[in-house]
Amino acid sequence: MSLQIQANTNDGLIKKLQDCGVIKHKIVANVMKETDRKYYSNLLIPYIDRPEMIDLSAYLAAPHMHAYALEKLVDFIKADSKILDIGSGSGYMAACFARLIQARAVETLKESTGYVIGVEPHQKLVETSIGNITADNPKLIESGLIKIFEGDGRKGIQEFGPFDVIHVGAAIPEVIIELLMLLNLNGRMLCPVGDTEGVQQMIQCDKNSAGEITKNVLTNVVFDPLIDPLDISPSTISTDGNISDTTDESSNTKITSSGFDESQIDIDEDENTLRDTNESLNKENIANEKSQPYLNLSDQVTQREEDESIASTISLKSFAMESDG
To answer: Looking at the domain 10-323, which fold is it?
Structure first.
């Protein structure tokens, strides 16, 4: 049975998430306390641990899902980190990431030189998120610490990369090679991958100093698809708001938009060993709250860390690319 968490204040909500073990790092708790959910929610009392529709095209994820993602990414965020938030929605996670950069700067007595780039496919949500963040703390936008762009984020945004952290806040059918190529050495990407009409797996991709990718299956989740199926095919987003096809000029190779070519990738992974880490997903909730970000909280409290996830190492050199010449 899932735990019911509700509070009258933002601090109270975060304290309860700490008490049940979802939030483990003090720095994550502090950042979530500073980023009051009321600025990003339409509810009169927003401190309830459940997803919320904020627009006809998007949901605000449940607080425990925000905490879960931050916990997985916090160790990769430093004062100079470049962070890409794809499907940035309400702007909540972008604000949390920005505050983590600031907190790391204070912690290490270094200058805060990092930034957060949000990419959101829906113009109305871009405007809403900028308004939300400005209401929370206008300096986050005014200082350039956070920039939000409209566009299809499935190919990232090359002008500001490579990124130390990439967070995908909506479901994608497969891990996208263009995003992995934008991930910096010793960086981490977190994304929900799978059937965009049902349950997905939260996938964690780490790139080591040699450029090798280690993929971990963490848990089952339910997210909205990154874009409407009727929308255009993947393209990069330029800072002037235009969308264009992309070519990797450094290697004179055109990057395909289809993601992994399973027949040409050397992955040492036994698909039969992929374990269902969240068998108690509430089927009724999935039916009634279709495609809302969901993770069984009681399972999360007892879930072991990454050493129990299924890992496979992939070298970027083994990805098949289509020659442009």
So the answer is: Rossmann fold (3.40.50)
Q: Where are the domains of the chain?
A: 10-323
Task: List, in order, residues 6 or more apart from 128 with CB less than 8 Å away.
Answer: 54, 55, 90, 91
DSSP 33-71: HHS-GGGT--SSS--BSS-EEEETTEEEPPHHHHHHHHH
Query: What is the pTM for the complete model shown?
Result: 0.74
Contacts of 197 (CB under 8 A, 6+ apart): 225, 291
pLDDT digits (tens, 9 = 90+) for 189-248: 999 999 878 899 999 999 999 999 999 999 999 998 887 534 544 443 333 433 233 223
Give Cα separations from 49 to 34, 151, 220, 228, 297 (angstroms). 17, 29, 17, 26, 10
The encoded tokens of residue 118 equal 């949000």
Reduced 3-state DSSP string for 167-194: EECCEECCCCHHHHHHEEEEEEEEEEEE
